[in-house]
Amino acid sequence: MNILIVEDDAGIAHFLQRGLRHHGLECDIALSGRAALTLLTSRNYDAMVLDRMMPVVDGMEVLRRKPGHVPVLMLSALGTLEDRIEGLDAGADDYLVKPFDIGEVIARLNAIGRRAKGTDRSDMLRAGDLEIVLTTFRAWRRGKPLHLNKKEFALLAELMRNAGRPVTRMMLIEAVWGYSFEPSTNIIESNMSRLRAKLTIHGDPDPIETARGFGYTLHADDAA
C-alpha cells in the first residue's frame, strides 16, 4: 500500500512513516493540508492518514476538497462521540483518537483498504435518469454530473440498490456509516438534505420520499 501521511507535527509524521515503512508500506509526508491537496492531485495513494487539527487548511477541509476517492483514517486529539461522528460524516472512513499505537494504525489502514476493494456490488447502477459508477465514485442525473461527497454518494447508492422499496434508517446507518446503533444526532437528515439539494439543483423533481421516523424510498419514475 502507498500511504499519504498528513500531519503538521513533523515528529509525529516521521514516527508514523517509520512505523508504516517497518511494516512494508510506502509513505509520503505532507506537513500541511495545502501540501496534501497538491500531492493528491499529482500522485495515486491507496489510503491517507489525516490529522484533523492543522492550521490554515485543516483535516476537515482536506476531506471536502480532496480529488477522487482515497480511503481516509483521521487522527485527532478530539475524541468525543460527537467529534468522531463529525469526522466520519465529513467523509473519513475511520477515526482514531490520539495518542495511538502504530499497530492499531496499520490494522485500521488494512481494514479500510479491504472495505474500499470490497464495496463494488456492480460497476454501475441506474435508476430512472440517475447513474452512478461505484468504482470511480461518479454520479450523474440526466447526463449532468453530480458533485457528491462520499457519504452523499453512499446514501444515493444504497437508495438506488433498493429503488422503489423503502430503506429504513437503520439500513442506511449500517450501509453508509457502519454503525450497529442509531446515533442521537441528525446525521442522516443532514446528509439526505444535501443529497436532495444536489439532485434537484437543475429544477428536477425530488425522487426521494420520506417516511417520517422510518426511512426513505427512491422512486425511479420520479428520476426519469
UniProtKB/TrEMBL annotation:
Keywords: DNA-binding, Phosphoprotein. SMART domains: REC (SM00448), Trans_reg_C (SM00862). InterPro entries: CheY-like_superfamily, OmpR/PhoB-type_DNA-bd, Sig_transdc_resp-reg_C-effctor, Sig_transdc_resp-reg_receiver, WalR-like, WH-like_DNA-bd_sf. This is Two-component system OmpR family response regulator. Residues 122-220 form the OmpR/PhoB-type domain. The lineage of its organism: Bacteria, Pseudomonadati, Pseudomonadota, Alphaproteobacteria, Sphingomonadales. Gene3D superfamilies: 3.40.50.2300, 6.10.250.690, Winged helix-like DNA-binding domain superfamily/Winged helix DNA-binding domain (1.10.10.10). One of its GO terms (cellular component) is protein-DNA complex. GO terms for molecular function: phosphorelay response regulator activity; transcription cis-regulatory region binding. The modification 4-aspartylphosphate is found at residue 51. Residues 2-113 form the Response regulatory domain. The keyword Lipid metabolism does not apply. Residues 122-220 bind DNA. It comes from Sphingomonas leidyi. GO terms for biological process: regulation of DNA-templated transcription. Pfam families: Response_reg, Trans_reg_C. It comes from the Bacteria.
